[in-house]
TrEMBL record:
Subcellular location per the Swiss-Prot or TrEMBL entry: Cell membrane
Protein name, per record: Uncharacterized protein
Cellular compartments per GO CC: plasma membrane
Lineage of origin: Eukaryota, Metazoa, Spiralia, Lophotrochozoa, Mollusca
Pfam families cross-referenced by the UniProt entry: LRR_8
Domain of life per record: Eukaryota
Biological process (GO), any one: monoatomic ion transmembrane transport
Membrane disposition: Single-pass membrane protein
PANTHER family assigned to the protein according to its UniProt record, in alphabetical order: GH08155P, LD45603P-RELATED
Swiss-Prot/TrEMBL keywords: Cell membrane, Disulfide bond, Ion channel, Ion transport, Membrane, Signal, Transmembrane, Transmembrane helix, Transport
Length: 134
């Protein structure tokens, strides 16, 4: 990633063996709008890994072996609108933390039930959001 210009807006890292995301991994990419870190074997994300990505609008975390979140990692993502995430990982995100993601409009979940089990979380603070299950 060090070879990418600091003004990169779309970063496609899928299928890389990143293992974990430290707190300084994306600090130079403050212009990112789209980040795909799907299938990267990520087992942990530092709670401040995304803190410099304030312009990010879409994040793809699908197909990583993470089991739980350590804190509210999405709080700095003021412009986040679209999130791709596994159902199991989504279910571990702190329920009260979703109110910090005010612009989120679409959540795509994978590998879980299609019974709209997160509708209660998203329906009140995020009135214009759709949750899609695959």
């Amino acid at each position: 990633m060090a070879e990418c210009p600091s003004n990169t807006t779309d970063l496609l890292l899928m299928k890389n063996n990143l293992n974990s995301l430290g707190k300084k991994i994306f600090t130079r990419y403050t212009q990112l709008r789209y980040l795909d870190i799907s299938s990267c074997n990520i087992s942990a994300i530092d709670k401040s890994a995304f803190e410099k990505l304030t312009l990010l609008t879409e994040l793809n975390l699908f197909d990583n072996p993470m089991k739980t979140f350590q804190g509210n990692i999405f709080a700095p993502l003021d412009d986040l609108q679209v999130l791709h995430i596994s159902h199991d990982l989504l279910s571990t995100y702190p329920r009260e933390a979703w109110s910090d993601v005010l612009n989120l409009t679409k959540v795509f979940t994978y590998g879980g039930p299609s019974n709209k089990s997160f509708a209660g979380i998203f329906s009140v603070p995020l009135l214009h959001m759709s949750v899609t299950y695959a």
